[in-house]
Amino acid sequence: MYKVGTKEWDENYAKLVEERNKSESKPYIVLTPEWASEFEKMVQADDRYKEVARTWEGSVTLVFKADPEAELDDDIFILLDLWHGECRSAKIVPSEIGRNGDYVLEAKYERWKRVLKKELNVVKEMATNRLKLVPFNFKKAAKLAAAAQAAIRLVDIAGEVSDKFPDELESEELRSFKAFLKELKTDFCI
Amino acid sequence: MFGLMGKILRVNLAERKISEEEIPEEIAKKFLGGRGIAGKYLFDEVKPGIDPLGPENKLIFMSGLLTGTPSPSAARYSVVAKSPLTNIWAQSNSGGRWGVDLKHSGFDGIIFEGISKKPTCLVIDDGKAELRDAVDFWGKSVSETTMMLKKTLGEKFNVAGIGIAGENLVKYAAIMNDLHRTAGRCGLGAVMGSKKLKAIAVKGTKEIRIADKKAFQEVSQKQYELLGESIFGAGLQGYGTTLVLDIVNVCGGLPTRNWQTGVCSFAEEINGEALNEKVLVREVGCYACSIKCGRDTEINKGPYRGQKGEGPEYETVAIFGAMCDNSDLESITMANYLCNNYGLDTISCGSTIAFTMECFERGILTKEDAGGLEISFGDSEMIIELVHKIAKREGVGDLLAEGTRIMAQRLGQDSERFAMHVKGLELPAYDSRAAKITGLAFATANRGGDHITGYVQGPTFLASPFLVIEDSEIEDPLKENPEETKVVKDLEDALTVFDAVGSCKFMGMASDAQEICEIIAAVTGRQFGVEEFRKIGERTYNLERVFNIREGLTRADDTLPKRLLEDPLPEGPAKGHVNNLEVFLDHYYEFRGWDKTTGKPTPEKLRELGLEEVIGQIYGGEK
Lengths: 190, 623
Hints:
The complex is a heterodimer of chains A (190) and B (623). With 190 residues, chain A is an alpha+beta fold. In chain A, 49% of the residues lie in helices and 16% in strands.
């Protein structure tokens, strides 16, 4: 097991992504490290995001709450390091790292899935606390409200990365996805 | 009566007579309060074709059904009359707490008739009303008048009134209350000035009766909690309405240099963050509002250092800022203070100044015409000077006091092309070329070029759907999807009810119709469902439309300035876009049940809404 927050963890995570980029075929399964990495690249390449998020400062953690019925046994934390229109990284991280994000947005897996599929409006979900800022903080909530267009663009891009969601996988693929999550838990505390 | 006090005052200013009337139960049921009931009285009592500044116009103040109850953000009153700026139906409303105090004084509303021989003011003290001489107040600013009245009557009196702009019949003069709160649009301050009515001071302790207090508390509490953890509530409290400035700018829809472009290069110098850093003292809210989008401010540097007041709000910042190409937030704030104290609508005032700047740029207006003034974009001192001149109708200010439509008519030389108004009302600061459906809302709003009649900016620029209607999603703001015109219709109807009950429209972003119906039901003690909610909104909206049709309005008036229809935006995400209004209009009329050729509500629609009695007024004997 690699120690969380160390150089070793980072290096091995990068290696894992590199390997899986080769071994897995696109579109990647949502919530995998390779999916997060692809998301990072696409945000980085997006001029519209750069424009609408040019004043944004702060990391954002998306917390997909565990939902065994949707084949997700543990919470998954995606940490986006966002700064002035740049996406400096996007990673699946352990909870203790994810919880330290500047803005932690939490929702049930099913809710996130519908947001990424654009069946639900991300701003409306935040406005009605179905995507919850945790812990709620007035100043941060105000910043999120002001960044509505950036949030929309991020979600649009995430939707473009892949629409292959874990609970929609065929049984064989689902088994191997779940096994992979176990490995992540063992090796990376994710 | 529950919710309403059940009584209004009728004040004949010419005869100096005051009488009390009960609001008929049927009118209360069909129109709820505020804009609804006031509009019904105006429709019934004001004949078509009258002079808005003459004795036959009536000026009607009306608090909302929920105003003064602890329902979240229900503090508003409406004022209606025929507008001197647009010559059609006018409604404006305002928050603060004057509307609450009016209700506590024992009356839901006041109907002013005729013209007083000399300046006067109405004083209502806990159920007793009298007209008093206001000769000493005439010529005084809003703050001076308020202070003088409070000194004479007592601090507990709350004042709504006009400043010098209203006295001088500036066509977009506002009615001010609580010093800084404004019933700004459509020139209702000029109607008040024409009646020689300087102010209305109110005080009272009468109780507003709530039918089911327990249910009311439960549903109100739920809404407070929702607002307490809503990013909208937080955003509005954090930045005031200037929260939206950056959002609109990144969409390429922040009107800049009189709508010559939708991208403002200096947005960061005048946005919500800048306002917080440069002038904010503290956040302030209306009665019973936890959002607190108001701003107590003070200017800390430059020639206006030490000046204090409230605001500016988004529209004011965008219009005296981007629209006038002015990056100096201190001068924007000062222009706002001046408008408040003179009693001027900042949207129309700033837009008229921006229009004047472009007329100068194009040589349509010259230094000679302007009494030696050099007027150019970006000149912050000139903006301040022009606000003074408009309020006093001094020099070129006399022309500007007429608003952009009349100015363009007088100046000619194709200036109408960039006179940014609809039906005479200057447009708010959202460029509809960057969010097409907003153009439809501007073109069809009953009071003219207006953004809060339907607030389609919510689901477009702000990407924030209104929960108060079932479906307010706009898929792509840059595409014209005729099916989405239903969103405009539904929002117009729903937000009309907000004006009738006296609630802030921001609540419509966070609450759904069912929750609002539960509050209305708890207050009134009668069954009140979503269907009735929507029908009351639609009924009121159609009655206003009939008022306008009666005044001669047709489909041809539901249009936009040529600049929006023909001149593509030159840069930004909406580069190359114009408004193609015709794609929307037929569908909108169809959703509305309006005749596609004439724009009239059909007799069938009017019957469906229980407005049979008005059919003859627009169809004569033909139907």
